[in-house]
Amino acid sequence: MAAERRQFVRCPLRLNTSYTILGTKKLGKSLTTNISGGGIRFVAEHTLAQGTRIDVVMRLPERHEPVRFLGEVVWSEPARQGDKALQGYATEVGVRFQKIDPKDLAFLTQYAALYAPPGAGSSDAGAKTGMA
């Protein structure tokens, strides 16, 4: 088994989010499947290739203001269609934060650590490589 490179605790969380593909102004809807202090994993209505840069807006129930960040797709694969909540989405992606307000980053890191299930730390076996 390959060594795990994940640095942050992951918190399974489904949030409706939106994104804009930089350079195209194409808007899309997405649904997070987990968040961490290094990035997020979500399903997207568009096919998003590795290296795609996006502007993401994410609303968390505990905050009045949305979290907004620039990110880069670090892995991409066809969305799984077995989960009814994920049907209709084209791609599942891992997005690494590239530019995020330090206060938002601190909030997400603390949120993920607080609400992550036991054992969801850096040894999570379902991790994709290259993403924090």
Description:
- There is one protein chain.
- Helix content is 11%, strand content 39%.
- Strand 3 and strand 4 (39-44) form a beta hairpin.
- The protein contains 1 helix and 7 strands; from the N terminus they run E-E-E-E-E-E-E-H.
- The two termini are 18 Å apart.
- With 132 residues, it is mainly β.
- The chain has one domain: Thrombin, subunit H.
- A 6-stranded antiparallel β-barrel has the order 2-3-4-7-6-5.
> What is the count of distinct domains?
1
**Count of individual beta strands:** 7
- Major sheet description: 6 strands, antiparallel, barrel
Main β-sheet, spatial strand arrangement? 2-3-4-7-6-5
Structural class: mainly beta
The CATH class, by name, is Mainly Beta
The helix count comes to: 1
CATH 2nd-level architecture: Beta Barrel
**Proportion of residues in helical segments:** 10-25%
Spatial gap, N to C terminus: 18 Å
Compact overview of the structure:
The protein is mainly beta and 132 residues long. It has one helix at residues 102-115; strands spanning 11-12, 16-21, 26-35, 39-44, 53-58, 67-78, 91-100.
Q: Keyphrases for this structure?
A:
132 residues; mainly beta; Thrombin, subunit H; six-stranded antiparallel barrel; 11% helix; 39% strand; globular; disordered C terminus
Write the layout of secondary structure elements.
Elements: E1 11-12, E2 16-21, E3 26-35, E4 39-44, E5 53-58, E6 67-78, E7 91-100, H1 102-115
Antiparallel strand pairs: 1-3, 2-3, 2-5, 3-4, 4-7, 5-6, 6-7
